[in-house]
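REVIEWER CHECKLIST
Item 1: Sequence provided? yes
Item 2: Single chain? yes
Item 3: Sequence as submitted:
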Amino acid sequence: MALLAAAALAAAPGARASADSDPAAGRAAEGASAVLDGLKTYGQAVLRTGDGSVRQIPAGLYEMRVDGGGMLQTYGVGVAGYAQPQARYTESGWNGSPLAGNAEAGRIRWVLEHSYPQLNDLAGLAKAAGAGSLTAESAAAGTQVAIWRLADGAQVEAADPAAELLADYLQRAAGRLPEPPASLGLDPGRVSGPVSGPVGTRLGPVTVRTGAQSVSVTPDAAAVAMGVRVVDAEGRPLESVGHGTRLYFEVPPGTPDGTASVTVQGSTKVPVGRVFTSGIPAEAQIVAGSSESATTATAAAVWPQPRAQSGPAGPVGTLGGATEVAVDSSSGSLSPEEESPEDERLATSGSSAATPVIAALAVGLVVLGGMVVLLLRKRPLEGEEGEEGEY
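Item 4: Structure as written out by the authors:
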């Protein structure tokens, strides 16, 4: 009965499949992608390395061009690498960047929120830091030095005295802020479940996370070809959505095993503190400022076909001269009206009505085999006696 009840629930119209919890499934790229223009506003810093060497390095703000439109201002995360112009970057959470597991990541975000370029009042920033006066270049250099110290524990100082005072102030005053959300994301990035029931299945939900007022919703070509729709909880097709909207993949009944995806796109500012990675950890960048920028996120749905149940229900045939036997496919036992006390006794003992016949046949075969062996042994003996009589 439990199996039948579960099957009925799975086949109910509009049944929902749970989000795929397989960690290996991973998450699709989300947010903005960009190309690094290069270092634009900067001063100089002095780095002391573990081997005792001292070298001067540039320190300050980079700029990025966002694919589809928009600009970003960023600082370097790692002091060891100098980011190369024209390198391609994608938006990432802290766990997917060199900040993964770094206890100072929240303090780095505080620095970004409380320094240049988020604070354009350079006179006020200089006063807070006791730095006399600051230019855009010295403010950028001091902010970068503070970030390097927190991210890498680097032994680095700003060459300009005012920039060095700013770096000391930011490092000393930094509080902790939480990780910022993605500029645009879908959570989770993948859902899965079987397709069952007369009206198919809705796989999801997938929740939209964005700072944009609205984003467009576009199913991929595979979804369109199979008749898969992206709908809300009531089954209404979606073309544009806002933050917090829940999406579902509505898969028609009888659709063969397959996958489909949906892409959402919009325009919003990338939050300060989001990381951009290029595949080279030492060259990771962290966002300090953003214009309205193009953002994209993708989520996928995967559905297998339900596997056929073993064994047909109802009558399964006859056994030479016996009455027809009906089998309950959910338990594999005789139907209640055909059970008897004798049947119950035999089932309990692990025997059946055919057991005596099988035992008799076995005994007969053993006796017959013994007689054959005796005959075969006897004939050669008689032959040998005859041959001895001839001598």
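Item 5: Key structural point noted by reviewer: Residues 1-27, 311-357, 379-391 have pLDDT under 50 and may be disordered.
Item 6: Recommendation: ____
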